[in-house]
């Protein structure tokens, strides 16, 4: 009988110190069954790794009040015993060690001076020592699993990756899932991939092919050594589709800037992507977004990739976004899966990883009919008549 009440007492104290609440009747009953020193260790591991505790700690670290009823929590903590016992237990449960004489005296005196018990717990929980102890005890805790695939079909799962979303927001784009669109995906995935591959640095030389006046150029100009935007800047693209190939950008780049940028780092040049006027081994990154499918079919796209590979430094990264047919007949300015496989199979270049081409076997979607209303979002899978397609993003490294 006594053993059960001792166990209940310990369980009660652990819940108050770690979670700032009493155990429910069911929690207390289940924990008390066969309670031992080993059960105490397991209970602590479980509570310290729980989302409930992680949220409390995050709030304290962020300077927010974690508890809805702080006075009620303080009353509960008062039931944990006299000041010395409370501080000693807080050390044991939170830091996993007995309180040293100095620490014990410091916190007992603080309580005598009028500090609350919550203040003592907060100090321990946000301490570096607790951080180290917690990382050993529960290294995964608080880290949400993230999709980090680079070579893939435009992937809605990236909208659940906070690191990726931070990049999207830094481009000035909405993170609203209802605004999900292939274009922001391409910009964000380009940056995410180049960063993960270690290619984007303050001194990086970056080439864009079929650049138009794409927003990501200006973002890169603020983070890389030099960004060279190349495009034919002639033909239909001068007038259609938001005037993406508007030649005026060569002379007045600032007129197209979405935000302040380092003008000395960005240059626009009129150039055919199939015949780049640069020497071999010039760039750290060469990329092209939504363009090579317009360069004259498979032959034009392949010539462009070879040229981009040629002007890359050894170890440099070639990033490409183009149209990938999910199903339906061939259609101009899109590529069938086997054509994509042939395009990325170039001497001297290798995919940094296999392409995840199964994304849309995992999602429900309605392909947006581009001939009817191309303005709908989410805008990830589209179609021209029966040809259903999306963006494929690939990263190749120059050997
Ligand atoms: C769909 S736009 C994409 C523009 C930009 N990359 C973007 O994402 O906003 C295609 C671009 O490819 C350019 N283009 C077409 N043929 C080209 C070629 N042979 N070499 C370089 N650029 C070309 C067009 O002028 C146009 O700006």
Describe the 3D structure.
The structure is a single chain. This protein has helices spanning 2-19, 25-32, 37-48, 51-61, 70-78, 83-95, 101-112, 117-125, 128-137, 162-170, 182-196, 215-221, 248-251, 297-311, 337-344; strands at residues 152-153, 205-209, 226-231, 266-270, 283-289, 312-327, 349-351, 368-369, 382-384, 387-398. The protein is an alpha/beta fold and 399 residues long. It folds into 2 domains: 2-137, no CATH class; 152-398, Rossmann fold (3-Layer(aba) Sandwich), CATH 3.40.50.150. The longest helix is centred in the N-terminal third of the chain and has 18 residues, at 2-19. The radius of gyration is 29 Å and the shape is elongated. The N and C termini lie far apart (73 Å). The site of S-adenosylmethionine (SAM) has 19 residues, from loops. The site of S-adenosylmethionine has 19 residues, from loops.
Identify every distinct bound molecule in the structure, by name, code or SMILES.
S-adenosylmethionine
C-alpha termini separation: 73 Å
Number of domains: 2
The proportion of strand residues reads 15-25%
Mean of residue pLDDT?
96
For CATH, the homologous superfamily of the largest domain is named as Vaccinia Virus protein VP39
Spell out the helices and strands N to C: HHHHHHHHHEHHEHEHEEHEHEEEE
Could you give the topology of this structure?
Blueprint: H1 2-19, H2 25-32, H3 37-48, H4 51-61, H5 70-78, H6 83-95, H7 101-112, H8 117-125, H9 128-137, E1 152-153, H10 162-170, H11 182-196, E2 205-209, H12 215-221, E3 226-231, H13 248-251, E4 266-270, E5 283-289, H14 297-311, E6 312-327, H15 337-344, E7 349-351, E8 368-369, E9 382-384, E10 387-398
Parallel strand pairs: 2-3, 2-5, 3-4, 5-6, 8-9
Antiparallel strand pairs: 1-10, 6-10, 7-10, 9-10
Helix pairs in contact: 1-2, 1-3, 1-6, 6-7, 6-8, 10-11
């Amino acid at each position: 009988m006594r053993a059960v009440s001792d166990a209940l007492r310990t369980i009660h104290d652990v819940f108050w110190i770690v979670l700032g609440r009493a155990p429910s009747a069911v929690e207390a009953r289940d924990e008390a069954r066969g309670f031992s020193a080993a059960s105490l260790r397991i209970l602590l591991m479980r509570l310290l790794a729980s989302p409930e505790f992680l949220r409390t700690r995050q709030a304290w670290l962020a300077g927010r009040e974690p508890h809805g009823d702080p006075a009620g929590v303080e009353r509960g903590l008062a039931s944990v015993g006299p000041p010395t016992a409370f501080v000693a237990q807080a050390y044991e449960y939170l830091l996993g060690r007995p309180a040293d004489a100095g620490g014990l005296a410091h916190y007992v005196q603080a309580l005598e001076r009028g500090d609350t018990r919550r203040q003592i717990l907060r100090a321990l929980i946000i301490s570096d020592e607790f951080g180290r102890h917690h990382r050993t005890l529960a290294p995964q805790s608080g880290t949400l699993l993230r999709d980090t695939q680079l070579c893939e079909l435009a992937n809605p799962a990236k909208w659940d990756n906070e690191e990726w979303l931070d990049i999207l927001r830094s481009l000035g784009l909405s993170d609203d899932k209802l605004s999900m669109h292939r274009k922001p995906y391409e910009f964000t995935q380009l940056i995410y991939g180049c960063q993960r591959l270690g290619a984007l640095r303050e001194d990086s030389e970056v080439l864009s092919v079929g650049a138009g006046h794409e927003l990501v150029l200006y973002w890169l100009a603020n983070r890389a050594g030099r960004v060279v935007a190349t495009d034919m800047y002639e033909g239909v693209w001068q007038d259609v589709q938001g005037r993406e190939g508007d030649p005026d950008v060569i002379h007045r780049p600032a007129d197209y800037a979405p935000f302040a940028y380092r003008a000395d780092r960005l240059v626009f040049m009129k150039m055919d992507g199939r015949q780049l006027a640069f020497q071999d081994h010039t760039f750290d990154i060469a990329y092209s977004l939504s363009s090579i499918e317009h360069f004259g079919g498979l032959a034009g796209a392949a010539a462009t990739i070879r040229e981009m590979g040629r002007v890359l430094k050894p170890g440099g990264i070639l990033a490409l976004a183009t149209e990938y047919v999910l199903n339906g007949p061939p259609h101009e300015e899109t590529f069938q899966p086997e054509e994509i496989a042939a395009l990325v199979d170039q001497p001297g270049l290798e995919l940094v990883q296999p392409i995840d081409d199964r994304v849309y076997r995992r999602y429900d979607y309605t392909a947006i009919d581009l001939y009817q209303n191309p303005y709908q979002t989410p805008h990830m899978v589209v179609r021209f008549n029966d040809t259903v397609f999306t963006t494929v993003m690939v990263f190749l490294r120059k050997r």
